[in-house]
Amino acid sequence: MGEAGRERVLRAALELFGRDGVAGTTLSSLRAASGVSVGSFYHHFAGKEQVAEALFIECLAMYQDAFLDELRAHDSARGAVPGVVAFHVRWCREHPERARFMFTERPSGSTGLDARNRMFFREVRSWWRVQVRHGALIDVDVVTAFVLWLGPAQELSRLWLNGQTREPDDAQIVSLSEAAWRSVGGNHGD
User: Fold this and answer.
1) Which domain CATH number covers 4?
2) What is the signed CA dihedral for 173, 62, 59, 77, rounded to 10 degrees?
3) Interval 3-18: pLDDT, tens
């Protein structure tokens, strides 16, 4: 099975895992939906857990790369903080299947996932420290920073993706963006 077959398995997994969850998806339904043979499947994956891990890392990489692009697109923390909040909600709206999967299926640590997260958080921490030195952001650890910065936007997106509320609208995004700035902006978010 070439790269196209691997991609077929991942596309089928996104659909099936989104509908039935990883636990509710059988290996045979995953192989059937992807149209690959047993041998071809096992050429790339040891089982559905490895498919879930590969899919999660793929989704996370897409999100993190776009997050960093959004972060770099702003000249100031005052632009970046609200810009990233808006980006987060927009990304979830543009990629609802991937976002839903990321919110519901969190694989345990893996080498690929751990390496990806180390790179991402190293870059965000570096950007944050520069902003703190200039007084633009409050001096907090990276976990607290992410909770204050993106926690409400993540929760709103999660509620929407789970069908518990309507799709976030522009007014909500503006409110969350401004609240994030008030939470993390230096000099009390002024």
Assistant:
1) 1.10.10
2) -40
3) 688 999 999 999 999 8
